[in-house]
Amino acid sequence: MQHCAINESEFASFRRFIFDMAGITMSDSKKALVSGRLAKRLQHYGLQTYDAYFRLLQSGQHANEVQLAVDLLTTNETYFFRESRHFDLLREAAESARPNLRAGAPFRVWSAACSSGEEPYSIAMVLADVLGNAPWEVVASDISTRVLQRARVGHYPMERASHLPQDYLRRFCLKGIREQAGTLLVDKALRQRVQFRQVNLNTDLPGDLGTYNVVFLRNVMIYFNGDTKRQVVARVTSRIKPGGSFFIGHSESLHEINDTLTTVMPSVYRK
């Protein structure tokens, strides 16, 4: 069945939908992305227009479909050890915390918009390397259940690993052979050290999330408007321990967004 192209008012409906659900502000340039990612769902339901699909989402009878639409509209590509300077700083923070770590007070890191999992696994590799048997924890969250499912599996195309240190690739990953050639699987022992959970940063955070030595919130704020940014940053940074670090994307800034953190260098802050 041929469905028609998305029109302006339909695109406006989905912009409002994703802003209400996830606080994400979509630019006009995302029109092709919206129509491309939702086309299969129209096909699935035998719908001819994006408006008909939007009405289905609004009907209140398809909670799973609403979640799926959010998943499709919020996922972005990532790779291992993206913006590698942050991982050098993570290593330094873990090394200096090491003497004081004990079972009741592990070194904790939160990957607050973990997408398909490359970031939290990169974090876990650094902590496994630096802290070994000393107590540490990695919590990874995302609004999208679909990417969290992918992240838990830990299976990736090899090109995502071009920044992954060779020694980590050997120690923490299994290289695919035969039909799995060109892929890698994060080692099961390391996968089990990362706790994945669904969290919407645009609403109150779960009480049991706890506090952290380091929080990564990278390349997410570019999707938020000023007010949403302020609210999200306030929520997330309230979970950083005094003296803890906060990493954002290199193209992002907290200028006029937050005054409770000290700038260490561009994209790196301390509480």
Give, in order, the helices and strands. HHHHHEHEHEHEEHEEHEEE
Note the gap between the termini.
Answer: 55 Å
Mean pLDDT, to the nearest integer, reads 93
Catalogue the unreliable spans.
none
What is the count of helical runs? 10
**By CATH's scheme, which homologous superfamily of the largest domain applies?**
Vaccinia Virus protein VP39
- Major sheet strand order: 6-2-1-7-8-10-9
Instruction: Provide the structure class.
Output: alpha/beta
Task: Assign an overall shape.
Answer: globular
The radius of gyration computed from the alpha-carbon positions, rounded to a whole number of angstroms, is 20 Å
Main beta-sheet strand count, sense and barrel state: 7 strands, mixed
What level of helicity do the residues show? 40-55%
Number of strands: 10
Strand percentage, roughly? 15-25%
